Structure to design on (294 residues):
């Protein structure tokens, strides 16, 4: 079988010389003297093709219809050529991996140049911002920033371009918003990463956290409602049996502060119930069996 050729070089005026790079697994039979004779070559030099990390990509053959002899020049050229091919294959492989991750990310991803212009956008951008990715190319990233935030966004972007430190924005201490194509605004979480290269790029990941904030607000409201009652309410981990929440009613009934109760397991409150009994109750609850009274 004919092996895969990764690269091939033929120079005009030198019909007797050919340089070809074969992929890994092509088979050593290609180098057999009888095989070379069959295709008209009488001499060949071979060089391993490896990436910068040592990955084996195949081998390079310099074959000639004339005797190459012991040519130090050809050996040096072949070694450098094999090294260059390996680096290029590795770069192409890494680029393809980046393309795959970029395309499949559930977050909106943007790649911008040093001037803040969008040079690449994945399909999720259309879901998060309402823009077809192709229409964003060449536009300043500020088109995705609310009108009221654009004036302060540009100096922050320039500052980040200078520092290049990975950054997460949109935490509880920093409010970040995104602007959709229709002008509507939503709360966002933005991750920034500087990518070295020539030219350097900035990768931005944007996530719409509207639903997350709504769930957090609903949880806070539920806990506030529990705190407003005189009933004791507890939330604890089924693995560690440690409290993660106790209501104000529980604190009033037991005479402990919330901070004290959060350091205690349920066993400290009801020592007559064993750990085995608690875990058996948890199994029953997780199976949604009728609750047992104790």
């Amino acid at each position: 079988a004919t092996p895969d050729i990764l690269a091939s070089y033929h120079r005009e005026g030198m019909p007797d010389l050919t340089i070809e790079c074969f992929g890994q697994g092509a088979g050593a039979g290609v180098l057999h003297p009888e095989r070379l004779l069959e295709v008209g070559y009488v001499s060949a030099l071979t060089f391993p093709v490896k990436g910068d990390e040592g990955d084996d990509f195949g081998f390079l053959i310099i074959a000639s219809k004339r005797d190459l002899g012991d040519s130090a020049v050809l050996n040096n050229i072949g070694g450098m050529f094999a090294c260059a091919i390996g680096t290029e294959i590795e770069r192409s492989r890494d680029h393809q991996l980046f393309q795959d991750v970029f395309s499949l990310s559930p977050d909106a991803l943007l790649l911008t140049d040093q001037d803040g212009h969008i040079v690449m956008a994945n399909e999720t951008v259309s879901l998060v911002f309402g823009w077809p990715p192709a229409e964003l190319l060449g536009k300043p990233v500020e088109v995705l920033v609310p009108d009221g935030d654009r004036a302060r966004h540009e100096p922050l972007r320039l500052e980040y371009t200078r520092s290049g430190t990975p950054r997460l924005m949109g935490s509880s201490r920093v409010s970040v918003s995104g602007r959709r194509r229709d002008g509507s605004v939503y709360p966002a979480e933005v991750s920034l990463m500087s990518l070295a290269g020539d030219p350097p790029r900035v990768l931005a990941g944007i996530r719409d956290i509207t639903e997350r904030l709504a769930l957090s607000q609903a949880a806070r409201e539920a806990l506030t409602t529990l705190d407003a009652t005189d009933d004791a309410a507890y939330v604890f981990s089924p693995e560690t049996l440690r409290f993660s929440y106790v209501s104000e009613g529980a604190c009033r009934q037991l005479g402990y502060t919330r901070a004290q109760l959060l350091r205690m397991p349920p066993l400290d409150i009801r020592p007559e119930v064993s750990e085995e009994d608690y875990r058996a109750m948890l199994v029953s609850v997780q199976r949604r069996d009728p609750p047992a009274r104790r």
